[in-house]
Fold:
Amino acid sequence: MTDLPQTMKAAILKHGGYSATSTGPVIEDAADWLEATELPVHNPGPGQVLIRLRASSVNPSDLHFIKGEYGQPRVKGAVAGFEGCGDVVATGKGAEALKGQRVAFVAAGSGAWAEYIVTQMQMCIPLRPDISDDDGAAQIVNPLTAMAMVDMAREDGDAFVISAASSQLGKLMCSLGRDLGLKPIALVRRAETVDTLKSLGAAEVLVTSDPEIVEKFAAISTTLKPRVFLDAVTDQLSENLFCTMPNRARWVTYGKLSTEAPTLSQTGQLIFMGKRIEGFWLTQWMMSTPPADQMRVVAEVQARFADDRWKTDVSEHLTLENLVSNLADALKKSDGKVIITP
Ligand SMILES: NC(=O)c1ccc[n+]([C@@H]2O[C@H](COP(=O)([O-])OP(=O)(O)OC[C@H]3O[C@@H](n4cnc5c(N)ncnc54)[C@H](OP(=O)(O)O)[C@@H]3O)[C@@H](O)[C@H]2O)c1
Structure:
């Protein structure tokens, strides 16, 4: 590691553990949760690689996590950020095959919002040269979730429902559904995103602020018979819509964009109509899906980005230097990911 610096820029967590709050993936000021600092660059251990960052994405899961509202406890002082892409500049024993490769990675040991990242080699995916760094920075969390959840939906008929459909993940799922011959029913909160969703293949698009949304959704539900509701919002409207879905419908909650806690108004539907409420978490999918199947999904994801069937919409680029001061403002822009570069 002689040609590598001793220290690096990084954004670290200000707090440890869980917070017991449920305020959602929004922040007033990143300085409440993060601190910009200089840290030592570590050597990779056995089975690990050291990656020099090219780009990292900011996902809602990162915001839930820094606030202590995610499925894993925070470690005070640890680097934030779950995913990114970069170049493998050093390898531990057994990981030599990745030396020199540009990879997309999930940060397993130290976070992605730093100049250098140590992670397990299994958390790295070598990137095709025709994938841009921006796409590489958001190559794992949302694309794999989109593939896994649309796969789940297609087992249960040809129509399915997507909430927060204007999110990056919503858009990926919509166009994937269309490409597979399915009928995505998109729910959006901003009317100006309706045309975008239609152009991405939504069979129907409803605006959640429409006072007649429940009736309109019920009519669509009767015609198209969607049996899977992929829900990132999980509020009372979600529950009301789920109640109008046909028998054997599944409400799959995978995000908590809304802070509202829904109540169940018709539990009899779970008993008499065979309806189900369940969760989806990519981490669980990765642990339970055989590696060969995951590799097939990864190859398909890269192919979709390489030939422009999918793309990462970017709202703003930040650097590690201005991340803490500018993140909250950058996140106010709709329609795209904030990407962090060194
Ligand atoms: N469970 C898993 O394994 C997993 C994996 C990946 C992602 N996710 C979840 O998937 C969701 C989308 O992720 P993403 O990266 O695609 O997000 P994103 O691109 O950052 O977009 C989030 C979008 O959701 C919309 N939104 C925000 N708050 C909302 C609310 N209260 N009600 C309705 N819509 C709201 C906003 O769009 P508008 O401004 O256009 O309304 C916002 O741009 C997140 O909840 C994330 O945590 C879960």
Notes: The mean pLDDT is 96. The domain at 7-138+312-341 is CATH 3.90.180.10 (Quinone Oxidoreductase; Chain A, domain 1). Residues 2 and 90 are 11 Å apart (CA to CA). The first strand starts at residue 7 and ends at 13.
